[in-house]
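Attaching the record inline, Q. Sequence:
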Amino acid sequence: MTDNRYLKRTINKETVPSTHLPEGSRDLRVYLPPGYNELLSYPVVYCQDGEDFFNFGRIATIANRMILDEGLEPFLIVGVEVDKSKRTDEYAADGARHNQYTTFFGEELIPFIEGKYPVRREPSQRVLAGDSLGATVSLHIALAYPDLFHQIISLSGAYYPSSCTIASETGDLGWLTMYMIVGLQETAYETDRGIYDFVAMNREMKQILESKNATLHYSEHEGQHAWGFWQRMIPEALQTFIDSDS
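Structure, as predicted:
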């Protein structure tokens, strides 16, 4: 049974104005940790597919439990909404809106959050998180803004050939740390671009990133390409990047 303390969450709704996105804005949800105090400063986790991370990943409930019971340092979570009909265009490296979205993220979203909330501004205090194509765009945002992001949570990343090419052509990635998992039952998952072997895609990206000196926390598990699997991995992912008293 879930402890009711974990369900008492403070989540603010925000809208970020944008000159880069055609819609002119993007909605967010911002989780504030137990004991939130504007006089303090906090690490922050930025999630692609924000609604899914909160509703299906239960990341706010998991964060509450880990902060209250396991000594995890309090942190903020920013969930960035996405129109599913435009998701591939924004998240895929060769998508029609990809450059607009990554520019919005680095140049509008981050200043908005850091101007409104007491979050720390060092790359070591920011984490990008994403599932499937959300992991892919998180990697490309970090590659585009290495002065902002050094840490990524990649849950079954959809590393299509365009992403592998970009990663292969980049320079040294000794500054990058990734928590990277994939499910062993993801060998024939149907996407809007066809059927892909996500295990093979993640193994290939792992080799590319390691050849560039990135630090990887890579593992393969029993699991499908679904939130039932990814939700189970969120606590370990958070522990990789958020300090703990234990």
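The first strand starts at residue 10 and ends at 17. Residues 98-116 form the longest helix (19 residues).

More tomorrow.
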